[in-house]
């Protein structure tokens, strides 16, 4: 019996003991803060393209062989600078002939005039026939017409001679030359080069119909407010710039919406003294999208998704979190504008969203958001869909 009891106790000792009741998972560490609330003005961003105010294809106005090229490819020129010269020899000869013709017809006119004066005097005394007077009157009129014709031919020869020197019609930047010295060019046909104006420069962009109507409601003038009005002030960024920084103003909108796309074409004008903005570059334009108001701003990292809606997590007094749907606006100062869903006095989770779900307890670390985010995506970008 003693041996049997010992064996039973040994077996009982080897049986696994029931595990102690496990504690719940530790509270997830998160960072919480109150939204930034401050006066803001919303900007709307649109994509567009820069275009030169003026662009001219340079053509010769007389035919001939290129005698000289007086510009460097890509150089900046002023209006009136000499660009190319067409061989002047044949036009110099034509000019000399025209000048000689003027002198000849001038002499003929003077002779016909004096001959007519003598005939007129003799007719008063009756010593010359009336027919002779009429003939000399006709000769004078013909000489006068020939003189006028020769002067017109001289003016044309002078113009042709002047047109052999091709000068810049506007100030701007040259393209590459399309001809070489010795090439034969045709008047008003052959493109010799191209020139585009530099300063100022235009920026064209399209506004959808709904946005255009919103602008019309925002201000009586919409996009057509007078030049110099503060509502016309805009800023534009090019591809390698994080935020719009080039100032300009709106000065034109089309007189109707495009029926195919349902958009309105608008134009802004920007100073470009340094020539950094080139025709053809894409850019982002930020224009006034609202009246000033106290906005609620939070980091994009504090925004989560719940199926087809955007949400933030509110911190309850017992350190649990609650999901709050929100409607997003554009980015301003590195933060996302919250148009609906937050009042600005709630505490929200700004970091650690992947570790939480509604109703769970968290271990919050309080922080304060600065008025402007230290780093962040571009201002004015659209709300994520």
UniProtKB/TrEMBL annotation:
<dbReference type="InterPro" id="IPR058625">
    <property type="entry name" value="MdtA-like_BSH"/>
</dbReference>
<dbReference type="InterPro" id="IPR006143">
    <property type="entry name" value="RND_pump_MFP"/>
</dbReference>
<feature type="domain" description="Multidrug resistance protein MdtA-like beta-barrel">
    <location>
        <begin position="233"/>
        <end position="287"/>
    </location>
</feature>
<feature type="domain" description="Multidrug resistance protein MdtA-like alpha-helical hairpin">
    <location>
        <begin position="95"/>
        <end position="164"/>
    </location>
</feature>
<dbReference type="Pfam" id="PF25917">
    <property type="entry name" value="BSH_RND"/>
</dbReference>
<feature type="domain" description="Multidrug resistance protein MdtA-like barrel-sandwich hybrid">
    <location>
        <begin position="55"/>
        <end position="191"/>
    </location>
</feature>
<feature type="coiled-coil region">
    <location>
        <begin position="95"/>
        <end position="122"/>
    </location>
</feature>
<dbReference type="InterPro" id="IPR058626">
    <property type="entry name" value="MdtA-like_b-barrel"/>
</dbReference>
<feature type="region of interest" description="Disordered">
    <location>
        <begin position="364"/>
        <end position="385"/>
    </location>
</feature>
<feature type="domain" description="Multidrug resistance protein MdtA-like C-terminal permuted SH3">
    <location>
        <begin position="296"/>
        <end position="354"/>
    </location>
</feature>
<keyword id="KW-0175">Coiled coil</keyword>
<dbReference type="GO" id="GO:0030313">
    <property type="term" value="C:cell envelope"/>
</dbReference>
<dbReference type="GO" id="GO:0046677">
    <property type="term" value="P:response to antibiotic"/>
</dbReference>
<dbReference type="Pfam" id="PF25967">
    <property type="entry name" value="RND-MFP_C"/>
</dbReference>
<dbReference type="Pfam" id="PF25876">
    <property type="entry name" value="HH_MFP_RND"/>
</dbReference>
<dbReference type="GO" id="GO:0022857">
    <property type="term" value="F:transmembrane transporter activity"/>
</dbReference>
<protein>
    <submittedName>
        <fullName>Efflux RND transporter periplasmic adaptor subunit</fullName>
    </submittedName>
</protein>
<comment type="similarity">
    <text>Belongs to the membrane fusion protein (MFP) (TC 8.A.1) family.</text>
</comment>
<dbReference type="GO" id="GO:0005886">
    <property type="term" value="C:plasma membrane"/>
</dbReference>
<dbReference type="Pfam" id="PF25944">
    <property type="entry name" value="Beta-barrel_RND"/>
</dbReference>
<dbReference type="InterPro" id="IPR058624">
    <property type="entry name" value="MdtA-like_HH"/>
</dbReference>
<dbReference type="InterPro" id="IPR058627">
    <property type="entry name" value="MdtA-like_C"/>
</dbReference>
């Amino acid at each position: 019996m003693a041996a049997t009891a010992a064996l039973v106790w040994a077996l009982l000792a080897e049986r696994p003991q029931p595990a102690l009741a496990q504690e719940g998972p530790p509270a997830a560490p998160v960072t919480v803060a109150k939204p930034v609330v401050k006066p803001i003005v919303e900007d709307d961003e649109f994509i567009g393209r820069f275009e030169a105010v003026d662009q001219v294809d340079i053509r010769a106005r007389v035919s001939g062989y290129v005698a000289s090229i007086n510009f460097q490819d890509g150089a900046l020129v002023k209006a009136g600078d000499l660009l190319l010269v067409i061989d002047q020899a044949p036009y110099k000869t034509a000019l000399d002939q025209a000048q000689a013709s003027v002198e000849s017809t001038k002499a003929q006119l003077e002779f016909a005039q004096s001959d007519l004066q003598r005939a007129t005097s003799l007719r008063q005394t009756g010593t010359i026939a009336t027919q002779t007077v009429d003939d000399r009157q006709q000769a004078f009129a013909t000489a006068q017409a020939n003189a006028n014709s020769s002067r017109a031919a001289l003016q044309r020869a002078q113009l042709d001679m002047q047109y052999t020197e091709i000068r810049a019609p506007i100030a701007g930047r040259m393209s590459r030359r399309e001809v070489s010295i010795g090439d034969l060019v045709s008047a008003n046909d052959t493109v010799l080069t191209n020139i585009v104006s530099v300063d100022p420069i235009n920026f064209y962009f399209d506004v959808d119909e709904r946005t255009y109507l919103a602008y019309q409601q925002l201000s009586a003038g919409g996009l057509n407010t007078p030049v110099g009005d503060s509502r016309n002030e805009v800023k534009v960024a090019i591809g390698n710039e994080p935020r719009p920084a080039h100032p300009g103003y709106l000065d034109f909108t089309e007189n109707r919406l495009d029926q195919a796309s349902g958009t309105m074409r608008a134009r802004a004008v920007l100073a470009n003294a340094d020539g950094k903005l080139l025709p053809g570059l894409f850019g982002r334009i930020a224009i006034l999208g609202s009246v000033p108001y106290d906005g609620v701003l939070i980091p994009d990292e504090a925004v989560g998704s719940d199926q087809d809606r955007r949400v933030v997590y509110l911190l309850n007094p017992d350190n649990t979190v609650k999901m709050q749907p929100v409607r997003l606006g554009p980015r301003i100062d590195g933060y996302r504008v919250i148009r609906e869903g937050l009042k600005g006095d709630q505490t929200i989770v700004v970091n650690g969203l992947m570790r939480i779900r509604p109703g769970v307890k968290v271990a919050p670390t309080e922080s304060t958001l600065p008025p402007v985010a230290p780093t962040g995506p571009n201002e004015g970008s659209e709300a994520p869909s």
